[in-house]
Amino acid sequence: MVGSAARSSSSRLALLVFTAIIGLFTALLSLPVATTDGTRTPFVDALFTAVSATTVTGLVTVDTGTHWSTFGLVVIMISMKVGGLGVLTLASLLGLSVSRQMGLAQRVITASETRAEKLAEVGSVLRTIVITSTSFELLTFLALTPFMIANEHPLGESLFFGMFYAVSAFNNGGFVPEAAGTAQYLADPYFSVPIATAVFVGSLGFPVILVLVGKWRTPRKWSLHAKLTLATSGILFLAGFVVHLVMEWSNPATLGPHDIGTKVLASAFAAVMPRSGGLSTLDIGALHNETQLFTDLLMFIGGGSGSTGGGIKVTTFALLILALVAEARGDRDVEVFRRSIPQETIRQAIGVLFMSAAVVFVATFVMLRITPFALESVLFEVLSAFGTVGLSMGITGDLGTAGKYVLVACMYVGRIGPMSLGAALALRSRTRMVHLPEERPIVG
């Protein structure tokens, strides 16, 4: 009974704590000390930035490198770290450090966020998450700091930029501390490779990372979720790489003027970022329509389950494709990697797909009514917000107050997840005791 009650309340608790954390960071970013000129940031922009950082999205309405002071950038970096770990995970870690033990209810709630398979493993999973995430961030920091020094940044600034980029990359935050942005590093592998690697690993999700860390020598013992996430993520990366390389090869505004090595590097970097990374070395607004459309799809899919990414998630997309293949073949069961997928899981995937599509449709419809921008720009922005990606066609800063609030809602729902949000807002849950007679309608 305790476990059942804890599971039913975990979504509401996550919603309340997440909202409170956003409120705290909004207040901090509203302080005059958070800006370079010492003035207060308008509430809507402070809220937008706090939500974007805590949901690890990366969309901005003010220029990060020029508007925010060092204090403001530190607040944003902490927000990304908190959002990447998860507020309930962080709360459980703090409680564990104080009391040295966790109650059953706390274990159940934490397990729902960390995706731990056994309640007894929650404590060790939490420690592994912190150690693993910190290690990846440290490695990225060590790779980027010498690069920053070599690019003639002062030592203190190089250390700060290295840490900021490391946190932003692994947690898929998408924020850039430099006024010049990341386009300046288009042809530089010493920046692109560490950043893209950190983004890709972070987008896999902690359930997969934990499997890789603990069982990297025995792939046959990997969980079905890990195998499915890795396989699908690899396919999506290759597809994104090919589309960017082929479609933009001769585009004079993107890859056209560059040599083959730069084209390959930039295409690989661009293929990783729609997972939820949000950093870009190419001008998104200058991409061909076909490339933008494919990026829309990648952003809607998002990252892995249990990761910082939004969207419908990689495994959801994979299960839907597998279900379509099974239906086309006339197979009764959906099977992959010598395992059969329960029908309840397929139903959940379908539910996530349609609820996510509904959120994107409503948000796009509203944005078209209240902004002067074209459909392709609005849809791209909404998908980037819902997928907590952070890529933009350059219209975010020009949105009115109402448009900014719509994107805030998209980022919030995208990070929480439409299914989790629905469960949290449900007035009550019940188990039906009566099963009505079946009758099959005509489909197709």
TrEMBL record:
Q: Where are the transmembrane segments?
A: 12-31, 68-96, 125-149, 195-216, 228-247, 310-328, 349-370, 405-427
Q: Which PANTHER family match?
A: KTR SYSTEM POTASSIUM UPTAKE PROTEIN B, TRK SYSTEM POTASSIUM UPTAKE PROTEIN TRKG-RELATED
Q: What is this protein called?
A: TrkH family potassium uptake protein
Please give the chief subcellular localization of this protein. Answer: membrane
The signal peptide annotation in the UniProt record is none
Q: According to Swiss-Prot or TrEMBL, what is its membrane topology?
A: Multi-pass membrane protein
Q: Which UniProt keywords apply?
A: Cell membrane, Ion transport, Membrane, Transmembrane, Transmembrane helix, Transport
The organism of origin for this protein: Brachybacterium hainanense
User: What does the UniProt entry say about where the protein is found?
Assistant: Cell membrane
